[in-house]
Amino acid sequence: MLTPGSVSLAEWRNIYDGGAVALDPACAARIDEGAAAVERIVARGEPVYGINTGFGKLASVRIADADLATLQRNIVLSHAAGVGDPMPAPVARLMMALKLASLAQGASGVRPATTDLLAAMIECDLVPVIPAQGSVGASGDLAPLAHLAATMIGVGEIWVSGERRPAAAALEGAGLTPLALGPKEGLALLNGTQFSCAYALAGLFEAERLLQAALVTGALSTEAARGSDTPFDPRIHALRRQRGQIEVAAALRTLVAGSAIRESHRDGDTRVQDPYCLRCQPQVMGAVLDLLRQAAATLADEANGVSDNPLIFADTDEALSGGNFHAEPVAFAADMIALALCEIGSIAERRIAMLVDPALSGLPAFLTPAPGLNSGFMIPQVTAAALVSENKQRAYPASVDSIPTSANQEDHVSMAAHGARRLVAMAENLANVLGIELLAAAQGCDFLNPLTSSEPLERARAAVRKAVPKLQDDRYFHPDMLAATRLVASGALASAAGVALPEVAA
C-alpha cells in the first residue's frame, strides 16, 4: 500500500524491482479538497501563478478563463522537449509512483481523475517512453515529466510489453481514456523532482547491492592473498567510533570466521601488515556505508515530499509560490552516491591488481597455472582499471555546477538530473569490476586447495564455480565475466554467502 508521506525506502525499492503499486484510499479526501480549492481560486478571478497566468518568465501574462484548459495542454506539449535515450523502464515506473505519491497529498490541486489515470497506467504497466536528457534539476524536472504528462493526454509513446506504441493507442488498448487537463494540472504533472529522485533512488538501491557484494568479494580476495583478519578486530573499530566501520568490520569477521586458509598461516607469517586494499576495508567500506546512509535519509524525505509549485492549501484556499522544485537535496545525495560507487570500485580494483601480481600475492603470475603461454587475468585487470577510471571521471560533483535558464528567471539550478542519471551507468561499471574481482579471488583460492575458506565464503565460491569453471588454459573470457557480473548485480552472490550484511535502505 502506497501511503504518501510515509513510504519507506524498502517500499520504493520494491516498486523499482517491479512490485505492485496500490494507492492508499485514504488519499481520496485530500485530493478532493485540493481540487476543490483550485476551483474556488479560479472562481475568485484573481491572478494566481500556474493557474491563470503564464509560466516562468511569462508569469505576468494573465490568461482568460476560456483558455485555461488550453494553457495547461500547451505547457505539457511545449515542455516535452527531452532528447537522448529513453529512461530505463524500471526507473521510469518508479518516477511515476513518486509523482503519484506527491500528487495524492492534495497540495498540487489535481482532480481524482488525474491520479486515477496515473495509478491505472502503473497498474497496467504502461510506462511512458521518456527521453532522459533535458532537465537541469530546477523548476522541476520539466522536460522528462512533461513527456510523462504528454502520454496521459494521449501524446507521445508508451512501452507496452517491451514495444513502443503511440500513447493514445496504448491507453485505448488498456481501456483508458486520455486526460483533459483542468486548471493547474499540466503544471502539477511536470513540476517536481521525481525524475531526479527516481534515478537517485535507483542508484542508491544498486549501490547497496554492490556494497554487500563487495564485502564478499573483498573477504574472498583477503583469503586468496592469505591476508590477516587482525584488522577486523572489533577493539580497533570501537576506538574509532564510526558506525559504518564497526558494522563492516563485523561483517568481514563473520565472512571469514572458521577459515582453514587463515588458520594455515596464522603462525609464522612473515608479513607484518597487509596492503591497504585488504587491511583498510573496514575504514573505506564503512565510510561508504555511512555516506550512502546519509544519501538515503535525504532521498527518503524527498520521495515522501511534495515538490510542486505553486502549492495549494485547501484550508485557506491559498496557492503559495515557492521553490520546492529546486532539486539541490537530490543533487547532493546523488553526488554522495557517485562518490560511494567510485570508492567501492577503486579499492576493489586494487585488490585485483594485488592478486595478479605474484610479488604481492604469492600466487602464480596473473592467476594462471602456466604464465607466459597463458595470460590469465592480465587483461581483465586492465578492464577493471578502465572502468574505475571512467567512474572517477563521472564522480565529479554535479551539484557544484549551475547554468541560468528561462531568461534568467531560473538563475541557479541544481543539476540533480544528470547527477542522478549517471549513477545507473556507474553502478553497471562497478558491477563489472566486482565480477572480475570475484573471478580472480575464486581463482586465487583454487590455488590454495585443499585448504578451504569459511563456510560463508565457500558457499559464495560454490556459486561462482557453478556458473564459471576454474581457469586452466586461456579461453574466451567474456562469458565468464558476464556470468560473474550477473551474480554480483542480482544480489545472488551476497545471498549465497548466507550471512547478514549491512543495509543502507532498510
Automatic annotation (TrEMBL):
Any GO molecular function: histidine ammonia-lyase activity
Compartmental location: Cytoplasm
Catalytic reactions on record: L-histidine = trans-urocanate + NH4(+)
Sorted UniProt keywords: Cytoplasm, Histidine metabolism, Lyase
Pathway where it operates: Amino-acid degradation; L-histidine degradation into L-glutamate; N-formimidoyl-L-glutamate from L-histidine: step 1/3
Name the record gives this protein: Histidine ammonia-lyase
UniProt modified residues of type 2,3-didehydroalanine (Ser): S139
PANTHER family: HISTIDINE AMMONIA-LYASE
Cytoplasm recorded as keyword: yes
Signal peptide bounds: none
Pfam families: Lyase_aromatic
Entry PTM: Contains an active site 4-methylidene-imidazol-5-one (MIO), which is formed autocatalytically by cyclization and dehydration of residues Ala-Ser-Gly.
UniProt-listed Enzyme Commission number(s): 4.3.1.3
NAD as UniProt keyword: no
Alphabetical list of CDD domains matching this protein: PAL-HAL (cd00332)
Cross-link (5-imidazolinone (Ala-Gly)): A138-G140
Record-linked InterPro entries: Aromatic_Lyase, Fumarase/histidase_N, HutH, L-Aspartase-like, Phe/His_NH3-lyase_AS
Source domain of life: Bacteria
GO biological process annotation, one example: L-histidine catabolic process to glutamate and formamide
HAMAP family tied to this protein: His_ammonia_lyase
Cellular compartments per GO CC: cytoplasm
Protein family: Belongs to the PAL/histidase family.
Organism encoding this protein: Sphingomonas changbaiensis NBRC 104936
